[in-house]
Amino acid sequence: MFITDTASKMDAVLIRDSAIAAGPDSVRVRFANMSPDAPALDLYVKGNPVPVATNITYKKAGVFFSYKTTVNIEFELRATGQSTLLATSEPFTLSKVNSNFYTIWSGGYVNGNPAAGTKITLDWFAH
């Protein structure tokens, strides 16, 4: 469950979990766009020019995909079909120790104020 937008426009968005099990050396990952003023978004692994999730619109999540377990992975966010970097995640570990499933999600606003903490960001949770 995600709580989106500002207090006056607040909305609860339920994204259901449904995916096949991960392989022995992989986890399952998906991307959710929870940034109200963002266009459709693409998610990239830093350093890879091919997106791992594409055209994800506000209040939607892409399908789970398999990704090899790894340490210090960073994800990058761009508007679909664009090259301008909107956000980069902090490095983290995709590990079966925490979970077999991860959701990477965008929050904040493309036109937000970094000093006020409202600029678009990427975060993650294991479930």
What does the model show?
By secondary structure, the protein is mostly beta strands. It has one domain (2-15, 25-126): Immunoglobulin-like (Sandwich). Helix content is 0%, strand content 46%. The chain contains no helices and 13 strands. Strand 1 (2-4) and strand 2 form a beta hairpin. It starts with a strand and ends with a strand. The mean pLDDT is 92.
Which features characterize this protein?
13 strands; four-stranded antiparallel beta sheet; five-stranded mixed beta sheet; mainly beta; 0% helix; Immunoglobulin-like; globular; 127 residues
Task: Briefly characterize the structure.
The chain has 127 residues and is an all-beta fold. Helix content is 0%, strand content 46%.
- Figure out the total of helices: 0
CATH topology grouping: Immunoglobulin-like
Describe the largest sheet.
Answer: 5 strands, mixed
Query: What's the count of strands?
Result: 13
If you average the pLDDT, what whole number results?
Answer: 92
CATH level 1 class label: Mainly Beta
Strand-residue proportion? over 45%
Distance between the termini: 12 Å
Domain tally:
1
Order of helices and strands: EEEEEEEEEEEEE
Query: What ranges have pLDDT less than 50 throughout 5 or more consecutive residues?
Result: none
Integer-rounded radius of gyration? 14 Å
Structural class: mainly beta
Determine the fraction of residues in helical runs and give it as a percent range: under 10%
Shape: globular
Which architecture per CATH?
Answer: Sandwich
